[in-house]
Design brief:
seven-stranded mixed sheet; alpha+beta; Aminopeptidase; binds coenzyme A
Length: 186
């Protein structure tokens, strides 16, 4: 069964907001929302957005976003050349502006219903629609058991060096996505 994002209430987390319950299978992600997310917002370190099930009075999913950069790594020359090939005036560039998904979690009972993928599409659209800042890539330090989810949503690995790590750096190129959804011509 698909749950539509539109059927949930969307809200940006603010310091004065009383948090409804949220429980995913990942304790760190539950604790971040309960204990840290407001401080991150207050310190301008990350902004957190909620999807609220108003009927059940609980949070169905949340994500947090922050600025990032994709930087040249001499150990990942292959991927760097591949990235550069798609960017004009790329000579000697050593980094590209990006946004990072700091956290993304779907509550137990709401998983496998398309919410995570719809949230990724919403973030991608948000970053390329009337952008206020240059932002070429969307990145995430993906939990090892969530990498298939990001691959399914067209994210790529930045390096093979983190293959056996607990998280893997992944990225999504926003330009083809923007060109596709807006019929952009340059
Ligand atoms: C990973 C997560 C965000 C996916 O959200 P979701 O709403 O279940 O994802 P969708 O329904 O859009 O897509 C699910 C598909 O992604 C793929 N997938 C791969 N790994 C997965 C995983 N660990 N959990 C869920 N789906 C996964 C499957 O193809 C799945 O298809 P299926 O439902 O037919 O099995 C969610 O399961 C979650 O919050 N997990 C716990 C926390 C976490 O790992 N967050 C990511 C931090 S980087």
């Amino acid at each position: 069964m698909i749950i539509r994002l539109e059927d949930l209430e969307f809200a940006q987390l603010t310091p004065d907001m009383e948090l409804l319950p949220f429980c995913s299978k990942d304790t760190d992600l539950n604790n971040f929302l309960a204990e840290d997310a407001k401080n991150y917002a207050a310190d301008l370190m990350a902004v957190t957005y909620l999807f609220i099930d108003t009927e059940k009075q609980q949070i169905a999913a949340y994500f947090s976003l922050l600025n990032d950069k994709v930087a040249y790594d001499p150990q990942a020359k292959g991927i760097w050349n591949r990235i550069n090939r798609h960017i004009s005036n790329n000579k000697r560039r050593r980094s590209y502006p990006s946004a990072k998904i700091g956290r993304l979690a779907v509550a137990t009972g709401y998983e496998h219903a398309g919410l995570g993928s719809q949230i990724l599409n919403l973030i991608k659209s948000y970053l390329v629609t009337e952008p206020k800042l240059g932002c070429r890539f969307l990145t995430v330090d993906a939990y090892a058991d969530a990498t298939d989810f990001y691959r399914k949503n067209d994210f790529d690995y930045f390096t093979t060096l983190d293959t056996f790590d607990s998280t893997r750096l992944m990225y999504f190129d926003l330009k083809p996505f923007r060109d596709n959804i807006t019929n952009y011509k340059n």
